[in-house]
Amino acid sequence: MNDTAPQPQTQGKPTIPANPSPWRFCVAPMIDWSDRECRFFHRLLSRRARLYTEMITTGAIIHGDRARLLGYSRQEHPVAIQLGGNDPAALAQCARVCADLGYDEVNLNVGCPSDRVQDGAFGACLMRQPELVGDCVAAMKAAAPIPVTVKCRIGVDDQDPEVALEELTRAVVAAGVDALIVHARKAWLQGLSPKENRDIPPLDYDRVHRLKQAWPDLPVILNGGLVSIDAAKTQLTALDGVMLGRAAYQNPGQLLQVDPELFGEAAPVAGERDALEALLPYIDERLQAGLRLSQITRHLLGLFPGQPGARAFRRHLATHATRPGADRQVLIDAMNMVRPFPARVAAQ
Predict the structure, then answer these.
(1) What is the residue extent of each domain of the chain?
(2) Between 130-143 and 88-100, two packed helices, what is the crossing angle to 10 degrees?
(3) Which residues does the annotation mark as catalytic?
(4) What are the pLDDT tens digits along the chain (348 aa)?
(5) I want to staple 321 with a disulfide (CB 3.0 to 4.6 A). Which of 13, 89, 164, 293 is the partner?
(6) What are the backbone dihedrals phi and psi of residue 198, each rounded to the nearest 5 degrees, phi first?
(7) Distance CA 252, CA 302 (A)
(8) Which 3-state string (H, E, C) describes the chain?
C-alpha cells in the first residue's frame, strides 16, 4: 500500500473546528477484523474516532441471529453499522432494527468488490445503479432517525470516475444522505481479487477533492491509502473527514494520536500499556460470556511496533491465547516480554 497520490498543498497542522464533523476521523468497516472485540479495544485508544462494524447483509439481519450479529458494548459509541444489500424495503427494515438497538449511524456498502457481493448484486456493483442507491438511502432515511451514509468507490471497471461519482452523489444527496465516504480507487469487478482491489487500482485523491468542491455542503470523507495520522491531517485541510482501515488495524497504537492531534483533546490513556491494562476487565467479562481469549488478543498483535520484545509479545499471544482455559494472565505474561506490568496489575 502506498500514499503517493497528490496531497493538498496546505502545510502545517490543520485548524481544529469548534464543532468538528462527526466523521472527522473514522476506522473503516473491515470484514473479519472490525468486530466488537476490535472496536472495544480501539475505543480505549480514542474517545472521538467513529467506529464501524463489519459489513452485515440484510438477509443475515432479517433471518439470522441478531444478538450475535448486532451485539456491541455501550462503550463503543459512537459506532456505526455497515449494511450490505440492494433492496430498499429490506434495508429500511434493517436500518430501523439497528436504530432501535442504539447504533449511531447506518452505512450502505457501495464499494466492496468481492465475489459474494457480485453474486448478490450489491456492494460495488451498485456504482452502476445510482438511482437504486438513492432509493435505498431514501428508504433508510424514512425508516430510521439516525444518520444514513454511503461508502463508495470512484467508479467500477471502465466507468469514467468524473461521471460515475457525480451521478452517485447526485442521487444520494437528493435522497437525503448525511455523508459520503469515498474510497479513492476504482473497483475492478473482473480480473482483480478483493485484496488486489485494495492496492492495485491507483489512488485518485484529486477526484475526491473535486467532489467536495462541487458539493460544499455535503460531508465528504476520504478512504484509501492513508497510512498515518499525519497523512490524515493533511487531507483534513480539504475534506470533512478521513477513514483509516488496515493502517489503524495493523498499527493500532497510532490511534492514541487521534484525540490530541485531530480534536485537541487528551488521549483516553497515556500509552499502549495503559490501554492493555484497561482491557483486562473486559477480557474477564467476555471470557465469562463464553468467548475464547484469542478472539480478543488477535486484535492486539500490531502493538509495540519496533520495540524490544514486540516479537515475543506476538508469539506468546499467538501460541497461548488459543489454549483451553487461557485467561488474562496470558496477556499479562505477553506484556511482561515487552516490559513488566506493575505489580498491582499482575497480582489481580
Answers:
(1) 25-263, 272-346
(2) 40
(3) 112
(4) 334 444 444 445 567 888 999 999 999 999 999 999 999 999 999 999 999 999 999 999 999 999 999 999 999 999 999 999 999 999 999 999 999 999 999 999 999 988 777 777 899 999 999 999 999 999 999 999 999 999 999 999 999 999 999 999 999 999 999 999 999 999 988 877 777 877 778 999 999 999 999 999 999 999 999 999 999 999 999 999 999 999 999 999 999 999 999 999 999 999 999 999 999 999 999 999 999 999 999 999 999 998 999 999 999 999 999 999 999 999 999 999 997 445 444 445
(5) 293
(6) -85, -10
(7) 6
(8) CCCCCCCCCCCCCCCCCCCCCCCCEEECCCCCCCCHHHHHHHHHHCCCCEEEEEEEEHHHHHHCCHHHHHCCCHHHCCEEEEEECCCHHHHHHHHHHHHHCCCCEEEEEECCCCHHHHHHCCHHHHHHCHHHHHHHHHHHHHHCCCCEEEEEECCECCCCHHHHHHHHHHHHHHCCCCEEEEECCCECCCCCCHHHHCCCCCCCHHHHHHHHHHCCCCCEEEECCCCCHHHHHHHCCCCCEEEECHHHHHCHHHHHHHHHHHHCCCCCCCCHHHHHHHHHHHHHHHHHCCCCCHHHHHHHCCCCCCCCCHHHHHHHHHHHCCCCCCCHHHHHHHHHCCCCCCHHHHCC
For residue 238 the three cell numbers come to 480539504
